[in-house]
Amino acid sequence: MALPVPDAAVTVPSSSSVRGPGLGLARIWRLVCNPAPGRLGYALRMAAACTTTVLIGEIWQVPELAVPALVTMALWQKDRVTNALAGVAVNVLILILLLIIYGLIRLTLDHPMGLVIVIALLSCSFFFLGSASKLKPVAYMLGLITVYGLIAIDQVPVGEVVTRALLYTDLFLAVPGSVMIVLGLLICPSPKKILTDSIAARLHMAARLLQNPDSLTQERAIDMLREGTADMMKSAKMASLERIWSAHDLACLRQAADSSVAVLALADDVSRAKLSQAQLSRLTETLEGMARIFADGDYPTAVESPVLASEHPSLQAITALLSNFTTPPAPVSSKSPEKKKSGFFSEDAFTNPDHVRFAVKGTAAVMLSYLTFKVLDWPGIHTCIITCFIVALPTMGEMISKLTLRITGALIGGTLGIASIIAVMPHLNGITGFLALVFVVSLIGAWVKTGDERIAYAGFQIGLAFYLTDLKGYGPIADMATARDRIVGIMLGNLITYAMFTSFWPASAYDHLGASLRKLSDCLKRQGTAQSSQNQLDAAALSQSALLESERTLEYAMSEPVHMRADQPRLRAALDALSDASRLTEELLATPRRPDLADRTARLEQIAS
C-alpha cells in the first residue's frame, strides 16, 4: 500500500552525546526499567511457563522442582517455533543423558572415589563444550543436571538408586521440554509477528530520534541499533519453517529488516544536526505510518518518499531507502561462492589453550564445592554446585562486571523467598495461592532476564535463588533452614567460582579486544566498498554487531583490577576509536567510498595489533 506524506510539526533535535562504556547504578536502573517493545509479553509468557512447570511438578510429585523450573526459565524463547524446536531438542537430549547416567550409576554405585572421578570428568567435558562448541547455550544446563543427578544418589535408598536417578533426570528435562512444546505453541506469537514488531520498533525509534532526541532516547536507540539484524533474520528463518507464509513475503520482510537498521543508523546521524521542523515533519510522519503497518503484522508494498528541503546526506539516504524499503534484491545470475559451514566445534577448539583452562577452572570450582559440602556434612548447601555451572565466565572483566549483578540477583531472589516463607506461606491454603506466588516472583526475574543482556544475568539469579529457596517439598513450605542452607550454597558457589576464575590463569578481556576490532575493521571496509546497496545494508548490520562486541569487550576490560588492566592511554585510544567507528558506520550509509575510510580503519587495526 502507498503511504501519503502528511504535514506535521516537530521539535528541533538536540545534539547527541557519546556514551562511555561501563555500567553505573543509574545505567543499570535504566536498563531494568526500559519498556522495550515486546519485553512485557515475553516476560509474562516466561513466567507462565515456569509456573506451569511447577504445577506439573506438584501434580507428579517431582523432587527438587527448582531444577526443571530453572531449565524452563533458561531455555524459554520468544516465538512458538523456536520454543517447539528447543523443546524437541531437550527431549531428544534426555534420552542420551539417561543412557549416560545409567551407565555411570552402574559404574559408581558403592564406589565413592569412582563417583568423584566421574563428576570431575563430566564437569570438565561440559565446561569444555560450553567454551568451544555450538552447545554453549545449553552445555552448562546439561552438565548441571547430569552432575546433580549423580550427586543425588546418596539421598535415596540403594535399591532404588538407578530407577529414581533415571526418573528424576528424565523429569528434570522432560517436563520443561514438554511445556515449551505445548504451552509455547499455545501462547507464543509467530516468529513472523516477532519480526514485524521488531521492524516497527526500529521505525518508531527512528521517528523519535527525528522528533525529540533526548539523551534517554538516544541511549535506547543505540542499544537497539547495536543488535543489528541477527535476531530478526533468525525470526525470518523460524517463520519459514512454519510453511504458512509465502517465500516472497518473507523475502520482503528480510529486506525490511536490513532497511530498518539502516534507517535507524541514519536517523541517529541526523539527530546530531540542528535541522528545522519543516525539514523533518514529512519524513517523521512517513516513518510512523510505516511502523503502524508493520505493527499490524503487514508490510507496505510501496512507500512514497517525501521530498525534503534539506540537503543533509543522511536525510537524503533515508528517503532513497524508503522507495525500496521492502523490495528484495533481484536474484543474481552468477553463482556466488558457497559459505564455509562451521562445524560443531569452534575453529580453535583444540588449539586454543583458553578452552581447556576454562574447563579446568570450572571443574575445580565444582569439585571444591562438592568437597566443601561433603566435608561439612551439610547436604543443604549442595546448591553451591549448581551455582558453579551457572555463573562461570571466561574473563576477569566479565567475572567482575557481573559479580555485582549476580550477588544482587541472588540476594533479591533469596530475600523474596525468605519473605514469602515468613509472610505469605502461612496464609496459603491451597495450590492456587502458591502458584500465584511463583508466578509473581517468576515475572520479576523474567522481566530482568528479558532485558539487556548486561542485566539478564541478574534476572536468572533472582529465579535461581527463589526457586532453590521455596521449591523444596510439595506445595507451600515453612522450612527456614532449607531457605538458609540454599542461599548459603548459592553465595558459596559464587565465591568459589569467582576465586577459581580470578586466581588461576586469569584471562583479561583486553586480550580479546584485538580480534573484535579487526572484525569491525573488516566490516567497515566491506561497507565502504560494497558494490550494491544490498551488500552495503548487510555490511552495515554486521558493523553494528561488531561494534557491540567490541564495546562490550572494552567495557569488561575497563572494569578489571588495576594490576591486570591495560594502561589508561590504550583504553582511551580504544574508546575514541570505537566512538569514531560508530560515526563512520552511519556516515558510510549516506556517503559510501569515503576517502578517509582507509585512515579510520587503520586506526582500529593499529590498536588491535
From TrEMBL:
| Keywords on record | Cell membrane, Membrane, Transmembrane, Transmembrane helix
Main location class: membrane
Q: Which residues cross the membrane?
A: 84-105, 111-130, 137-153, 165-188, 403-425, 431-448, 455-475, 487-510
| A Pfam family per the record | FUSC_2
InterPro entries recorded: Memb_transporter_dom
Organism's domain of life? Bacteria
Descriptive protein name = Fusaric acid resistance protein
Location(s) in or outside the cell: Cell membrane
Its placement in the membrane is given as: Multi-pass membrane protein
